[in-house]
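testing teh design pipeline on a random one, pls ignore if ur not involved
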């Protein structure tokens, strides 16, 4: 690797002086293998096998000319991003290694990491919307995302329209036409099509390919074509890869499966460099990047991501097989037992696994659901998902309490819907716990 760029400006030796090893003998290495070292070379850190935590706010430049070039990339004056490390609000070794490894799972061209899932979502939206614009989104969404789109952006002249997660391409097409007309009347544009699939907490799937086809029909391929962004937290990156089905931007709460130990909060955004560059510019300005310690913890967690998600998925299938026919359960929102034909079609095209987060409908209402939750002995009564431990919560009374009653009812978020996130415990132990808890209902 040269220590000068094409302008003959001295460049500081950076990580990865050697080409990354991504294949052996023509065999493309799997993500689970690449998580053990991709994006990091021990030579650059005194031979340390694992990346150190770089607890520094700023980085020294090799020369004034190099500093200028780095800032040209950071500020966007020159495309392509920074050639080197500048300041921890912009980049850092731990964050950049993490971004390299996150890109592997979804085969994305670029990735960015954030201080939380919501800071990732907010930064994506801020990078794409202007006054007079319309946001089109699927429903339901995570409650904080709905609040951000429907209430906070609304204070700045941004409006929204939404469609149910299971909407057909024709229904999405009609809504996009309507949104386009409203945007034209407002002097704006349809800024972004924002999806969440599976939806939180119902597990309803969105037809990503169908939405992409509808967008092409309404907006064509040129001009102001709104990007399709999707929150892929529930299934990704192991069980669903939306970039392969027409999405442009994939968003994660890395707090969940990627972190997977309920000990950190972070977010991630992936896609092409063209889509990431404006998001990176906003992140650089408002400082929503994650800290180096969190990035280091995520690097640790990514090494076991496939193992943890696979075990949790296997456990969920066993637990749901038990719950499916239980007399005190009136329904399951589990992707392994889909009853709707159109939802099954989406699952077959988009998903490679049913995941480990699902909804169970307890016969009765809030009283019965509370009795079930309070009786659990292994499963923890807590929000969030994707951790090593099993978690259970009542969205209508907790995460989605701020959603108006009428909208909750329309979205199917009922008082007896319990959201379960299965962990990596012994499956038979979990079944015993659910069995005794249901006996208290």
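output:
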């Amino acid at each position: 690797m040269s220590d000068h760029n094409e302008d003959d400006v001295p460049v500081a030796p950076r990580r990865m002086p050697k080409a990354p090893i991504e294949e052996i003998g023509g065999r493309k290495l799997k993500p689970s293998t690449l998580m053990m070292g991709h994006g990091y070379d021990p030579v650059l850190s005194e031979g340390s096998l694992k990346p150190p935590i770089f607890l520094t706010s700023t980085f020294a430049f090799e020369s004034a000319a190099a500093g200028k070039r780095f800032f040209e990339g950071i500020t966007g004056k020159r495309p392509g991003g920074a050639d080197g490390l500048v300041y921890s609000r912009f980049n850092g070794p731990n964050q950049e290694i993490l971004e390299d490894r996150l890109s592997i799972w979804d085969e994305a061209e670029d990735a960015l990491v954030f201080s939380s899932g919501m800071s990732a979502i907010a930064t994506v939206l801020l990078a794409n919307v202007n006054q007079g614009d319309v946001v089109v989104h699927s429903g339901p969404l995570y409650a904080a995302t709905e609040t951000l789109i429907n209430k906070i952006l609304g204070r700045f002249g941004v409006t929204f329209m939404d469609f149910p997660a299971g909407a057909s391409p024709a229904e999405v097409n009609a809504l996009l036409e309507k949104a386009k007309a409203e945007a034209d009347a407002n002097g704006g544009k349809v800024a972004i099509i924002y999806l969440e699939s599976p939806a939180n907490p119902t597990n309803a799937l969105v037809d990503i390919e169908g939405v992409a086809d509808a967008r092409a029909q309404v907006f064509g391929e040129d001009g102001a074509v709104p990007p399709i962004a999707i929150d892929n937290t529930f299934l990704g990156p192991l069980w669903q890869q939306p970039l392969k089905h027409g999405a442009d931007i994939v968003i994660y709460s890395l707090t969940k499966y990627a972190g997977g130990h309920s000990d950190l909060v972070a977010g991630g955004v992936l896609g092409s460099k063209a889509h990431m560059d404006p998001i990176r510019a906003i992140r650089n300005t408002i400082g929503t990047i994650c800290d180096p310690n969190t990035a280091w913890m995520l690097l640790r967690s990514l090494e076991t991501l496939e193992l943890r998600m696979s075990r949790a998925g296997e456990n969920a299938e066993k637990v749901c097989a038990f719950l499916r026919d239980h007399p005190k359960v009136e329904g399951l929102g589990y992707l392994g037992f889909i009853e709707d034909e159109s939802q099954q079609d989406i699952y077959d095209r988009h998903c490679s696994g049913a995941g480990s987060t699902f909804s169970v409908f307890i016969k009765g209402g809030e009283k019965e659901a509370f009795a079930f939750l309070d009786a659990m002995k292994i499963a923890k009564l807590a929000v969030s998902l994707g951790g090593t431990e099993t978690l259970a919560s009542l969205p209508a009374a907790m995460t989605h309490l701020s959603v108006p009653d009428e909208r909750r009812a329309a979205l199917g978020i009922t008082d007896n819907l319990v959201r379960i996130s299965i962990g990596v415990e012994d499956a038979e132990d979990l079944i015993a716990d659910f069995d005794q808890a249901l006996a208290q209902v």
